[in-house]
Specification:
The chain contains eleven helices and 21 strands. It is an alpha/beta fold. The strands form six sheets. It has a seven-stranded parallel sheet with strand order 11-15-10-5-8-9-16, with helices on both faces. Strands 18-17-19-20-21 form a five-stranded parallel sheet. Bound molecules: flavin-adenine dinucleotide (FAD).
């Protein structure tokens, strides 16, 4: 079916509102009648909204995808595990997935891949999964892109989920994009909000766009499953309900799809003298105001005294003062600590996007007009090189360290 738009000649009064509204310059007036250049028109609908006389009719064709939408059921969550330990992002997805599944009257399912991981299924059921698909094979002990993606593609094709959620973690990002491409589904990355459209029952996927300046809501009306990744710490974890019961389905897959061109030789964990910021309750973060890498030692010392982790702005990471794993913000980690202490960070929107949900924000900056102060619970105007050591000494004394 072809897409179509037309001006109703008997209704058009030639007011020109549609000409002004068209962002593509596709409409002009011809003898007090709007004429649409179909070569330029993108069927965005701006003219239809602008016309006060209902004189423009648009029929946007549903592409004939051949997809049997009714066959796609359930809300799926990828249960990321590392060394057999289900990661907290999976519990956050279960918390959000539960609401979506209830809205749709569908089951909430978790997909768990690994080796000797069956025991983790109970944990997933206790956190809200109605059904856990388990693929338990030695080849899946550690995450490797190819076999993990191949197994998930097989699972999606076999069981046809309506919605498939995955953490926007290093593993999730690498994995789920391969799956989306192979099953010809759209994928919305880094969602901060997920709801169901009450009319169409489509998944409304909200995420920051244009550098965090606007929130965009994205829909995948023509493809299934509807796939989205969600950042860690943006959504609330599902609480465990001890004794909750659910189903477990052990899935078999052909040995052929477990083959991989890459092999994991070893794993070298990053050496951390302080707490990992993704899980930290307190974060002491440094920005360009730290001036050089050695000065981060001052933040590490404060963080150690108060049991926190060390974060950084992108400016500090780009300057190679601290590794990327410490970066907080739009292109770094989203953190949700109880206390966030920002030292020498101006508070640009991309940084705020990663830490604004902290309960208490303390900003130390020598510029009283720094934007971070608008967001801060407590602001200290002054030189961080004087203030941070004073705080460290004070906390040492207070905590008897
Ligand atoms: C697409 C995109 C994605 C981005 N993603 C991120 C992201 O994930 N995370 C992120 O942080 N940024 C990100 N940025 C960069 C962001 O726009 C800012 O450039 C960055 O956050 C600035 O870092 P800063 O605050 O450390 O540096 P600056 O903006 O230079 O601020 C330094 C601050 O230190 C203060 N200062 C200096 N000396 C002292 C002192 N002795 N005592 C006290 N205060 C002092 C200054 O007054 C100033 O306010 C992104 C940008 C883009 C375009």
């Amino acid at each position: 079916m072809a897409d179509a738009i037309k001006v109703l000649e008997e209704t058009c009064v030639g007011c020109g509102l549609c000409v002004k509204a068209c962002p593509f310059g596709a409409i002009e007036m011809d003898n007090r009648l709007a004429r649409i250049d179909l070569a330029k028109c993108t069927l965005c609908g701006a003219c239809v909204d602008a016309c006060k006389f209902d004189a423009i009719e648009m029929r946007k064709a549903q592409p004939e995808t051949g997809i049997d939408f009714a066959a796609y059921k359930d809300v799926w969550v990828f249960a990321e595990q590392v060394d057999g330990q289900v990661q907290s992002i999976a519990f956050e997805l279960l918390g959000e997935g539960r609401k979506l599944a209830d809205d749709l009257g569908m089951r909430l399912c978790a997909v768990l891949l690994g080796s000797n991981i069956e025991t983790a299924t109970n944990e997933l059921i206790e956190r809200g999964a109605d059904l856990v698909y388990v693929v338990d094979r030695p080849e899946l002990e550690h995450f490797v892109d190819e076999p993990y993606a191949a197994v998930l593609i097989e699972m999606v094709q076999r069981h046809k989920p309506n919605i498939f959620l995955c953490g926007a973690s290093t593993i999730g990002r690498s994995l789920v994009s391969r799956v989306a491409v192979s099953v010809n589904a759209g994928l919305t990355a880094d969602c901060t909000g997920l709801t169901i459209d009450p009319e169409t029952k489509n998944l409304l996927q909200t995420r920051p766009a244009f550098g965090g300046n606007i929130m965009a809501t994205i829909v995948s009306p023509n493809h299934r499953p509807q796939m989205a990744t969600v950042r860690h710490k943006v959504m609330k974890e599902a609480d465990p309900q001890p004794g909750r019961t659910g189903e477990k389905l052990i899935e078999e897959v052909a040995a052929e799809i477990l083959k991989s061109r890459t092999k994991r030789l070893s794993f070298v964990p990053e050496e951390e003298s302080t707490v990992n910021i993704a899980e930290a309750n307190i974060i002491v973060s440094g920005g360009r105001g730290m001036q050089k890498p050695e000065n981060f030692e001052m933040l590490r010392e404060l963080a150690e005294v108060i049991g926190g982790g060390v974060g950084a702005s992108r400016a500090a990471v780009d300057a190679d003062w601290i590794p990327y794993s410490h970066q907080v913000g739009q292109t770094g980690k989203t953190v949700c600590p109880k206390i966030y202490i920002a030292c020498g960070i101006s508070g640009q929107i991309q940084h705020l996007a990663g830490m604004s949900s902290a309960d208490i924000i303390v900003a130390i900056n020598r510029d009283p007009d720094a934007p971070i102060f608008k967001m801060a619970t407590y602001g200290i105007v002054g030189d961080l090189f004087k203030i941070v050591p004073m705080l460290t000494q004070h906390f040492k004394k207070m905590l008897g360290k």
